[in-house]
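User: I'm preparing a small set of examples for a lab meeting where we compare how different chains pack in three dimensions. I only have the primary sequence for this one, and I'd like the structure in token form so I can line it up with the others. Please keep the answer compact; I'll paste it straight into my notes.
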Amino acid sequence: MEVWHLVQSYPKLRTTKYKFESPEANLRRYGQVEPPEYDLGKITNRRLVIFGANEDILVSAESIAATSSQIKGELQQRKE
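Assistant: Understood. Below is the structure token output for the 80-residue chain.
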């Protein structure tokens, strides 16, 4: 299920909970037709690492920047 969840998120710059096969299933699980976004602003762990690479086919630089901008606290970034 994790890989399918990744596929659902690509190429959107959104991090949402798992999208079930039908709107009815989402409604039962989340109380709404579309899965809600994760509140990345609640992440406060200082040991968080986000990986990506220039030639990465799964995670774009834009996606990393969008995700990083939502996380509170200081993030160290290193580009190679």
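A couple of notes for your slides: DSSP finds three helices and no strands in the chain. The mean pLDDT is 77.

User: Perfect, thanks.
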